């Protein structure tokens, strides 16, 4: 049974963001092309799945009608100064003709994935065009207009499922956190470069939810220069114990690749080995798993990281990773090591002691704020 699904349609590539915007919507199509050339999209247990576009009605299950009306007008090419009140027409969230078509497809892919997982027709589904974690119910922000993650999580909770959402994008998952801040049926965990040094300026250790949601929003802010081992330590000490304790019905992963050392918009220093490790670990929980893309502004390296995630999902991530270059696909980058995987990157020795200290302090704070609520020991 093909129960590991790569969700993609060429329709997703037809209405790209303006070239001046760093958010490059060709990435999903390029991942699809690379994986096709590697013969990684059709096997006994995995395959391609064509999504259905989302409908206006589906978007209204989270987004305000007034905001969606503005998006419709913007999509027709109208301009109104009131757009700015909805975050539209800014440098980060430009308006462009047929923009809604883009969002219907990227969102529809996450909703298709959620429905397949709920129906038991898939165990793992990957939508590289999804992961719009900055979109809010009433406004656009940070290249994100429609929050496909919130909508997918609501699809699960409406069916009575409890969801664990882990976000490893370099930016705080402010939009998703807002969506579930007072709920305990979706636990959100965000690993990100600290809001002191990066957009959107939120996601600190004391943002832990309110009311029924107290203890179910978890934030792990990280210093610039954070390297693989330090990042994995935070995952091991904080994130995985919380997943085990929460014991969700479904796992959702936002796998932005703007954490990579080469990313031009942020300052963490990870390699894509982290993406493979996290994917493998989440798979080991044996729960339905939805993976989305997200940020990633070094395009070649982002395409390679997401291709590596899919290769990991198909169970073919091994140490003999000599697959690049197949099918005439040529990939060049600073971290390229001859396969999909990055070569290991040493921590910057001039800042390593400060990075280690900052991460240890963060781990201690998060455990102190969150662990007692879940009867977990801080030690
Ligand atoms: Zn990001």
Quick overview of this protein structure:
By secondary structure, the protein is α/β, with parallel strands linked by helices. It contains ten helices and eight strands.
Query: What is CATH's topology name?
Result: Arginase, Chain A
Query: What is the count of distinct domains?
Result: 1
Q: What proportion of the residues is helical, as a percent range?
A: 25-40%
- Total number of beta strands: 8
Core attributes:
single chain; 379 residues; alpha/beta; Arginase, Chain A; eight-stranded parallel sheet; 8 strands; 11% strand; globular; binds zinc ion
Give a structural overview.
This protein has helices at residues 27-37, 56-59, 65-75, 99-118, 148-158, 174-180, 228-246, 273-283, 299-313, 352-370, and strands at 4-7, 46-49, 124-127, 163-167, 186-193, 217-222, 250-254, 289-292. The protein is globular. Helix 7 (228-246) packs parallel to helix 10. The protein is built from 10 helices and 8 strands. It has a single domain, classed as Histone deacetylase domain (Arginase, Chain A). Helix 8 (273-283) links the parallel strand 7 and strand 8. It is α/β, with parallel strands linked by helices. An 8-stranded parallel beta sheet has the order 2-1-3-8-7-4-5-6, with helices on both faces. Bound molecules: zinc ion. Residues 169-171, 256, 258, 294-295 line the site of zinc ion (ZN). Residues 169-171, 256, 258, 294-295 line the site of zinc ion.
